[in-house]
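User: Continuing from earlier, I have the next pair ready.

Assistant: Great, send them over.

User: Here they are, in order.

Assistant: Folding the first of the pair now:
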Amino acid sequence: MSLVRTLWLVAVFALTLSIQPGHGMAYTVFTAVLKYYRSIAPEPVDAVPDAAYFERQYDFIVVGAGSGGSVVANRLTEVRGWTVLLLEAGGEENELTDVPLLVSYLLDIGYDWGYRTEPQEGICGAMKDRRCRWPRGKAMGGTSVINYMVYTRGVSEDYDNWERLGNHGWSYADVLPYFKKSEDVGKTTPLAASPYHGVGGYLKVQEPTWKTPLGPVFLRAGRELGYQAPVDHNGPQPLGFSYVLANTDRGTRCSASKAFLRPIRKRRNLTVTKKSFVTKVLIDPNTKRAYGVKFVKNKRTVTVFARKEVILSAGALNTPQLLMLSGVGPADHLTEMGIPVIKDLKVGYNLQDHVSMAGLVFLVNQTVTIVESRYRHPKYFLQYAIDGMGPYTIPGGAEAVAFTTTRYSDNSTASVPDMELVFGPGALTGDTGGSLHRLLGMDDEFFERVYGAYSGRDAWGLVPILLRPKSRGRIKLRSANPFQFPMFYAGYLTDPVDRKVLIEGIKQAVAVSETNAFQKYGSKLLPVPFPGCEHEEFGSDAYWWCATGLVSTNLHHQVGTCKMGPDSDPDAVVDPKLRVRGIKGLRVVDASIMPVIPAGHTNSMVYMIGEKASDMIKENWL
C-alpha cells in the first residue's frame, strides 16, 4: 500500500472518530486533509525542465489538458515526426481525485477554477449572492477530474441535427465510430457485443460495482411507469431507466488524463507543462495567422511558437475568453475592453447548459440510503483502500438515470428524450458534513431552513435535468486582464418553455416516488416549502415555478460559445473542420464548438470531438 493511501486511512479514521454529524467542522477538517494529500502526492515527472520551454517551436501547441486536449495530444503524437506541446493551467491528479464518491470535496482544494454566474432575476435565488456555482476543472484531465463521470452521448437525432445545420461530416453515422474508438466497455461485458459500443479504447466505461438497495427499486419504478428498464441509453432506444455507465476503472475515476495521457507521457515528441497559464494566442494581424502563444509559469512569461497549428481545448468557458483576449470576438465588445480587433466573430454567444433542480428530497423509513456520517465508518474506507470496492466507488453519488419525454417534446421525435432524471441513493438531508450543499453553492441559511430539521434522515434524491434548453446565455470579458474571471450570463430559463419543461420533470420525479416500488419504503417528498414560495400551494405548478427560481443547479455541461457552422451561418465561430473562421492555423477542440447541446452528458461528446478533430488535423497535414 502506498504512503499516500496509508496516510489517507489514518486521517479519515481519525476524522470519523472526532467529528460529530451535522457539524460544519467536518467539511473544514476533511478539506484540509485533502489539501494536505494533494501537496504530498507524487506527480509524473515531465520529460524536460522548465527552461526548455522558452523560445521553443513545436508543430502543434495544445492549450488545455482536459477531455478534448488530452485526446488531441495523444492522437497527434502518434505521428512520430510531429512535436506537440501541451499546456495546462492546473496541476496533476492524485489518489484522492480517484475516489468517485468524494467529488463534492474536490472543488475547494485547487481543482476548480471557482467560477460563478452573474446574478440573474428568476434563477439561483437560494445560492450564495444569488449566483450559481459553475465548477470547471483546473488540472491534468480538466473537468473530467471533478465531474460525476456519467457516460451518455445523446441520441442520433442530436447529431443528425448538427448535419442539417450545415455541419457536414457530423451526422450520427459520422460520429458513432469516434465514440466507439475511445471506448472500452470490457471484453466480458454484455455491451461488448453491441454495435453501439467499443472495446479496447483508452477510456474505461463501466457500470458501478456497488449498488444500494434502492437501485433495483428505481428500475422497478420505471417499469411501473411504463418505461423499459434496464436500457442502454447510448443505443437506438434511449428512453427508459437504467444503472449509470460511468468513466470508472475498477472502482476509481478514469479521467481524460488517466485514460489518454498517462499511457503516453514518455513519448519523445510530447512535451507537457503544468501550472502554465496561457494569456494570449499570438496572431499576425496582417496575415491573420496564429503562430504561437504566451503563457505564465513560475511567474515568468514564456513565448512558444507553432509551426502548424495552435489548438484551443480550454473548454466552453476559457476558450472564448482566450480568443477574445487575443483579438478574436465581437468587435464592439473588444473595442469596449480596449483590445485591438483582429477578427469580428460571435465568440461567447450561444451559451447553453443543462439546467437542473437538485433540491428534491424523498424521505424513506428504512436504513437504505447514503448518509454521510454513516459512511465515515472505518470499514468503508478500508474496503475502498484495500479492495477498491464499496460505497466510495459510486460515481459522485449518481447510481442510476432515466431518460423520459414530457408533454412539451416534439411529437415528430417522440422517442427522443427532453428530460433526464438522475437518481442518487442519498440526498441533502444526508449531507451531514456540508460538502454537497457547498458543491451546489447553496446559501447556508436556506439549506438549514429547508433541510436542517431532517438532518441525518434516510432519503434519496432525483434530479430533473432539462435536456433541450431553448434559452441561451453569453460570456463577456470583465477586462483585458487575463487573470480576471470573465462574466458568465447563464441565461437559464429565460425562455418560459424551459421552465415549464423543468416543472414537468419535477412532477415526473414525484411520480417515481409515488410508485408502489418506492411506497414499500414509505417514500414521500420532504414536506418543507422553500422560503419565498410559501405563498403558493405546496406541490402545485405555481409552487414549482417559484422553486425552480431558487434552486437552479447544473452538471458542468456548458457548451456552444464558439459555435460550429458553415460560412452561411453568421453566428458561427468555427467551420465544420473546427478551424476559426478567418484565422489560419487556429482550431478549437472542446465543448464550445457544439451548435446545439445534445441530450446527454457532454464529457463523452468532447472525447468524440477530440477523436474526430485529430483525424481532420492528420488529414489536413498528412
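And the other member of the pair:
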Amino acid sequence: MALSPVPAPGRPPGPPIGPPLGRPSDSGVAPSRGARPAELPPVHGALICVALPALAICSEHGQLTGEGLEGVYAAGRRLLSRCVLRVAGREPVALQGRMATADRAVFLGVLRVPGDMGPDPGITVERTRSADGTERITLRSAVARPLRLPVEIALGTDLANLGAVASGRSGPGLTASVHGTGLRWTGDGSSVAVTADPPPTDSLAAAGVLRWEAEVAPGGTFSVQLRVREDSPTRSSGSPGAGAGRPGGHLLADAQAEGDDARPGELLRASVEDLRALLQRDPAHPADVHLAAGVPWRCGPVTAEALWAARMVLPLGTRLAATTLRALGRTQLSGAGPGSGRIPGPLRDAGPHLPPRCTGIEATLAFPVVLAEARRWGLPTADLEELLPVAERCLGWLRRAAAGDGLVPDPGPAGPWRAETQAHAHRAALLGADLLDACARPGGDALRDSARTLRERFRREFWLDDRTGGRPAVARLPDGRCLSHLGGWAAHLLDTGLLGGGIPAQGLLDRTESEQVARLLGTPALDSGWGLRGLGTKEPGHNPFGHRAGAVRVHETAVAVAGLAAAGHEKEAASLLRGLIDASEAFAHRLPEMYAGEQRTAGGRPVPHPAACRPAAIVAAGAVHALLALAGIRPDAPGRSVSTHPLRSAPLGAIRFSGLVVAGEPFAVRVGRLGLGMVEQAAEGLQLGV
C-alpha cells in the first residue's frame, strides 16, 4: 500500500496529503529494507467526509479533540483540530454518528436539563459537519419551560500537514486572535479563520473559546453555524483543484438500482457518491479530472488505480475515462530509450513472496484497454483521436518488452514475470489490436502475434499440473522457479475485455483451465464468505490482515465476480457477489479498500483493517462493476448495438438498473426473477440483443 505518491517526471508534486512513509521509486529498485515506516493511526472507526481537496475526519461522538487524525483538512493541511462543544458546562452524551452523504456526517447527542431529577434528557443536540469545514449545531428543547443555557465551543488548530499528523509530528496548537465574528490562527505563512453565525456574545482568544447565552423556548431551537476558511495565497495556487472549484457530477451519471433486494441500490448510490467525492482536478490542467486513489492516505497524482476505476465505471459515462487517460498520457515517457512509451509509476508492495511491482507498467498496459473499451461505450471521436497516439506508444512499449521470450517482466528487465502482468499484457495486446484495426492504424497483426506467443508461453510455463486439476503459478522467477501461491490475483486471468460486437476476447487459459480457476476461486480457501482473499488460507505467509497476504481486497473480488459471470461460472460469481453485498451492509454501504479475510461465521461481521482507505476509488468503482455483472451489458456503440447477458440464476432476485449511459444516451435494463434481461431505455437506433 503506497502511502506517499511519487510525482511523474515533469509534474510538480501536489501538497503533501499522505505521511512520508517509505517513498517508493519508479526505478525498479525496492525501497530500502532498513527504513522502518511509522505506524499509521487507525481510521477504521472514523467518519470521513470527503469533497476533495477538502475532507473532515471525525470520531463517532462528533467532538473534534485533536487526537489522532481528527480534524478538518484542505489540500492536506489541517485547518481545524479542535471543536469541542459544551452546554451548561457539560459535553452532550453522544448517541449516534453516521454518514448522511459522502461529504457530510451527522451526530446526535442529548443533555439532561440542569435541575431536573429524572433520567430523561430534555435537550437534543444535532451536529452536521461537512468536508468543507461548515458545521451547524442545533439544540432542541423538549422541556415545558423556557431555558437559558450557556453554550461554548472550544476551537484550535496546528495547521499541520496530514503526513505530520499521521506520524505524530504535528507540533503544538497555535494561539488564536479575535477576528470578526470568530477566531483566527496564523503560523508557517498560513492563516485560518473560523466565523460564527450568530456572532458569539463573548470570545476568549487565549483559550480559543466562543460563547453564547442561548435562550430556548419550550419546543424551540437554538442554532450556531461555523465556517472554517483558509487565507493562504501562497498555497492556493498549488492545491488540487485550485481556482477551479469542485468537479461537477456530470462526469458520472446518477445510476440507480431497484429490485427485490434493496441493498444493491444502497450500495450503488453510496458508491457513486464516493466516486464524485474523490474527483480532483489536475492542478496544471484544471479541465482534466481524475479520481484520487483513496482517503486519507492516497490523494496524490493520477495513478493506475484511477485508470482501473475509470474503466469499471464506463457504464456511468466515458468523460471520466477520457480526462483520466489525458492526465496520465501527459506523463508518458518519450525519446528513443527502452522506457519510451511507458507511463511512470511508483513501486508497490506485492505481498510476502514477491518483490514490489511497478504500477507504471500496470498503467501502461491498462491505457489501451481503457481507451478501447471506452470506444465501445461511446467515447466521442475527438477524444479517441487525441488519445490514440498515446495508446499506440503504450502498445509499442508492450511489443518491445515482450520481444525477448514473449513475456512481460515486472518491475525490471530481469523479472520476475508475474501471472497478473501477463494477463494485463495479453488483454492489452488483443484489445489494442482491435482498436488499431478499427481506427485503420497499422500494428494490429503484430500485436495479435505477441498475444499468441504470450498465451503459448503462459500455458506452457505458468500452468502447474497436480492431482486436483492444476493451478496457475503466481510468478516465474529469474532462476526459472515458479511460485505456486494461490490468491485473489488469479481473478485477473478471467478478465479478458470486450472486442468488436461486444464479444469477449480470448483469455490466457483454455476452457478446462478457466473452469479450474473458477473452481479454485470458489473454494473456502479463497472465498471467505465476505469476498475473495488476497492469499489462500493454506498458503505460507497467509495473514488475514495482509493486504496482499490474505485480506479481502474489494477490487479483486469485483474483477472475479465480473470475470466469472462473463465466463458462465454463475455459482462462484453469485457467492462472491452476495458476500460483497453482505459486507457492504456491515460497513454502511461504504466499503473500505480491504478488510480482514477471516472466515465468515453465523452472526459474524467482517473485521475492518485499521489502515484501509475508505472511501477508495477502485473500491467504489468495483462495487459498480460487480453489481452490473448481474445484467452483463456488452455495448458496441461504433457498431450501433448493445446486448445483455444476465446471470440466469438471478442471485438477488429481480433488479433494474437505470441512469446508465451507452452511446452517450441514457440506458436502463431490467433482469427478472427468471434471469431474463430486457432493455427498457436506449439510444435511438441501437440494435438490442439478449
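Worth noting for the second one:
The two ends are 41 Å apart (CA to CA). Residues 1-37, 233-244 have pLDDT under 50 and may be disordered.
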